[in-house]
Structures are given as C-alpha cells and as structure tokens.
Amino acid sequence: MPWSLCLVLCSLLAGTQADPGVLLRLGMDIMNHEVQSAMEESHILEKMAAEASNPQPGAKAIKGLSNMKVKDVLEPVITLNFVPGVGIFQCVSTGMTITGKSFTGGNMEINVVLNITATDRLLQDEGTGTPMFRSEGCEVILVSVKTNLPNNKAINKFVDSTLRKVLPGLMCPAIDAVLVYVNKKWINLTDPMPMGQMGTVKYALASPPNTTASHVQVDFSPVVQLQGGQRIQLATNGTAPEFPEGPAKDSQLLLSATFLTAELALLQKSLEVKLKDKRGTVGKLPQTTETLAGFIPQVAKTYHKPKPLLIKVKINKPPKVTMKAGKSLMHLHGSLEMFAARRHGKHAKSLFRLETHIGLEIHYSVQENRLQMATSLDRFIEPVPGIFFNWRFPLLSETELSGFVTDYLQKAYIPLVNDALHIGIPLPDLLAINYNLAELDIVEDALVLGLKME
Ligand SMILES: *[C@@H]1O[C@H](CO)[C@@H](O)[C@H](O)[C@H]1NC(C)=O
Ligand SMILES: *[C@@H]1O[C@H](CO)[C@@H](O)[C@H](O)[C@H]1NC(C)=O
Ligand SMILES: *[C@@H]1O[C@H](CO)[C@@H](O)[C@H](O)[C@H]1NC(C)=O
Ligand SMILES: *[C@@H]1O[C@H](CO)[C@@H](O)[C@H](O)[C@H]1NC(C)=O
Questions:
Q1: How crowded is the C-beta side of 380, counted as CA atoms within 13 Å?
Q2: What domains can you pick out in the chain, each with its CATH number?
Q3: Ligand 3: distance of its center to the CA of 325 in Å?
Q4: How far is the CA of 207 from the centre of ligand 4 (A)?
C-alpha cells in the first residue's frame, strides 16, 4: 500500500478503535494458579509417559533400547516469568524413571530430572477474539541423569544423546497440551451475557492483550446492548481509564463509571413507576389526600373526603453513575407526579408534578460473580423554583412537601430501584476467576476489584 494511502487508512482505522471502559490486570498469582490447574486437569505428563510406553506404530525405535517404559513421573514444578511485550516464559521441572532392556541385554533404569522450557506467546485469537497462548521454542534441559548401567564414559554419552533425541518429542507436546487447557479458560470471555430480560453485555477486547514485567493486561471495550439490539454507546471522551497507583503486580479489574452508566441504561425503564403499577404499593400510597391537605390548602378545599393517592415516577434520561474516592452516586433525572384516585373507570386526577434530580448513594458488592449495587438516599435535590409543572396550589410548607416526597422515596421508591438493580452486572468470565473474593475500592471515576486467589 502506498505510504500516503496508509496515512489516511491507518489513521482512520486507529480512529475507530474504541476507548476501553473496563481494564483487567492479571498478576503472577493468577497466571500461576491457572497454569498449575491446567497441568493438573490435563494429567498431561502421565499421559505422555503412558504414550511413551506404548509401542508407537511407525515411531522410530530407539537404537539399543527395547521394551521401554516410563514410570514414576515426578510432580511437575512450574515456574513462570513475564516477558514484556511477548507473554510468559514457562519452565516445567519434573523427573521420571525410564526402564527397558539395554543393548547389553540387561535391565536398564534411568532416573532423569529435567526442565522443559518454552515461551508462551500471548496473542488474540482471530476467530473468537479471545486471548490465547501459543508456545514457541520448546527445549528440554537435562538436569541430572542417573543409570544402573556401568559408569562408563561411552555409556553415559550414549544415554545422554539418546535422551536428548527422544525427550523433546515426548515432552514438548505436553506444553502445547497444557496451553490448550489454559486457552479453554478464556473461551467464554467474549460471549454476550444477559442482564435479566433487559439486554446483554459482551466483554470484547479493545486491543490485543499486553504483557508487562509484572502482569498481563487486557483492555475491554464492552458492548452493551438492549434486548431489541440497540447498542448503548459508552460515553468515553478519549481519556482511557487507568489503574490507580499501587503495587502493579496485584490482579485487578477496573470498571469505569462510564461502563457502569451504560449498564444502568438497560434498567432505565424498570426504574419508572406507572399509575397502574403491578408492583404492589409502589404507585399507591398508604396516605390519602388528607395528608396533603395539611400543607396544600387547595387539596383541603377540593377534597372534603379523603381520596387515595397515586404516584407516577418518570425517568427522563439514562441513570448516571459518578465516582469520587470512597463514594459513588447514581443520578436519576425525571419527574414525580401525584394523583388523587377517582371512582372506578375514571382517570386519576393530577395534583402536582415535581421535576426531580434524585441522588442515590451506591453500595457495591459481588455475589455469584455478579456486581451487585444497592442504593440509599443520598440527598433529595430540592426542586428548583419555577420548574413545577401543573402546580395549581399554594403551599403552606415546602419542608413538609419535601418530607412527604423523601418519605415516599425512602419507603417505596428506593426498594423498587434496589429490586431492579438486583439483576447484577455480569463480570468478565475468564480463567474461572472467583470475583466473590474481590476487595472493592471506589476511586476517581472507577470501581476497582482487587482479585484474590482462593
Ligand atoms: C531447572 O529449573 C529450576 C526451576 O526453574 C531451576 O531452578 C534450575 O536452575 C533449572 N536447571 C537447569 C539446569 O536449567
Ligand atoms: C463455557 O460455556 C459453556 C456453555 O455455557 C459451558 O458449558 C462451559 O463450561 C464454559 N467454559 C468455561 C471454561 O467456563
Ligand atoms: C504494553 O505495556 C507497556 C508497559 O506498560 C507499554 O509501554 C506499551 O505501550 C504497551 N503496549 C501496548 C500495545 O499497549
Ligand atoms: C473525560 O472523562 C473523565 C471521566 O469522566 C474526566 O475525568 C476527564 O476530565 C474528561 N476529559 C475530558 C478531556 O473531557
């Protein structure tokens, strides 16, 4: 491609790259745990040993050795190191006993201790879009070799060169086989996960995963979609979120306020209260017009007999999540309208409507690997003068109206909000991470989960 064309196209491509809204940092503790458990799940060295003992059709017989068997494979010790920009250097230390008939006709036993080393390059699978490891440059290093054969230079040399020839073919497939198990643990990562009936979230990678000296970092551009298919854009502004300063080796998941805001957009409709609300008493107040008559003279004049009150809550724009160190709020902008119920068949009569901005404090926790939010009333932002609609009544006491509304919000509306939030936000499904153990920390514009191994 001509350079000038690349300048145009390449910058266009770069421009379409989405800002990450969720970051994941995997330290050595998690990587060790994953590789170790993949090794155990795969029973790989035992399988290799068993295979080696079976006569392989077409396999090259080892000259001078017959009836070869591999037994007593030692529990492998795995050592991993990050290779910045590349992936992980893996060393598997193990040992085994090889038995057989030697060329002299006697029973031969070789105890060998060895290291298998390889570089596991961290890539992004083109098909599934998930991270994957691929091993490169596998080598077998003999640490010690002991035989029951006469200690003689020629024999030692023979054993040594035979092992060097045979072992890589035997052991290196084990590295690849273990990586198959590790790679499987990412496989569901980019599947859309449901948020109840409202929509889905998919943790798509923003860019190929990156390895640094202390961790693997995966940046996500989550795709949040309403049930019908409409995508909710993350309101990122070009500044990528960053992990707070701290020990870089720790494993952490960062959920930006922007991401949480997009998730809550899925719930906007379930935060509304309609007049004919099926959710019990949320829209039907225990009080009557008599209560309002105490501070709205016009209600006292119009309603001599108490009438039941009904309430309607509209949310005009998607809820917004904001975060400052230690504190997170959910902002609900909308209106609250009060009605007096009328006899069967007649529409309820509107008494007044308030424009509202409700600030709820969010309390985060993780249950069953989903982020849970519960809210409590932080402040009821007083209606600004001049934005009351349908306001036909003089008011005796604004404090009493405010108290009345606050009471409603606390007793009926917030439980409804918490009910809607109870769905929880699914977290990235990878490496069988147990988020339930995470320590949560609210920082500037983000929630950080400190990931712990069991
Ligand atoms: C084999 O691996 C172990 C563990 O990583 C290491 O301590 C040892 O030095 C290695 N030996 C050789 C000969 O490479
Ligand atoms: C991936 O999803 C499938 C289907 O839900 C499930 O059977 C499988 O256990 C999951 N794999 C992992 C590694 O979580
Ligand atoms: C990978 O991480 C290193 C160290 O943090 C950084 O310098 C480099 O720019 C990153 N590479 C990519 C492609 O993000
Ligand atoms: C982008 O948004 C972040 C988080 O909301 C904010 O801290 C930052 O100041 C914004 N940057 C710009 C350039 O608007």
A1: 20
A2: 27-184 (3.15.10.10), 193-450 (3.15.20.10)
A3: 27
A4: 21
> 184 CB less than 6 Å from ligand 2?
yes
* Max Cα distance, the chain (Å): 117
Residues of the chain where predicted confidence (pLDDT) is lower than 70: 1-18, 51-65, 103, 279-280, 379-395
Q: Residue 91 CA: which ligand 1 atom is closest?
A: 5
- Name residue 358's amino acid: I
Tell which one of 34, 41, 185, 187 to mutate to probe ligand 2, the residue whose CB is within 8 A of the most ligand atoms: 187
Ligand 1 touching residue 91 (CB < 6 A):
yes
CA 89 / ligand 2 centre spacing (Å): 27
Mutual angle of helices 28-42 and 153-184, in 10-degree steps: 110
State in Å: Cα 158 to ligand 3 middle: 47
Sign of the dihedral through C-alpha 325, 329, 333, 338: negative
- The whole-angstrom separation of Cα 211 and Cα 122 is 8
Convert the pLDDT of each residue in 243-288 to its tens digit: 988 777 789 999 999 999 999 999 999 999 988 777 667 788 888 8
Nearest ligand to the CA of 446 is 4
State the distance from the centre of ligand 2 to the C-alpha of 128, rounded, in angstroms.
14
Residue whose CA is at the smallest distance from ligand 3 atom 2: 212
Tokens of 352: 């007044």
**CA separation for the pair 340, 279 (Å, rounded):** 19
Q: Do residues 141 and 167 make contact, with C-beta atoms less than 8 angstroms apart?
A: no
Q: Which of 140, 131, 183, 179 is nearest to 162 (CA)?
A: 140
| Residue 266: both structure tokens together | 């899925």
**pTM (predicted TM-score):** 0.86
Give the DSSP letter of residue 271.
G
Task: Write out pLDDT tens, residues 357-384.
Answer: 888 999 999 999 999 999 998 765 555 4
Contacts of 32 (CB under 8 A, 6+ apart): 78, 80
CA dist 404 and 408 (Å) reads 6
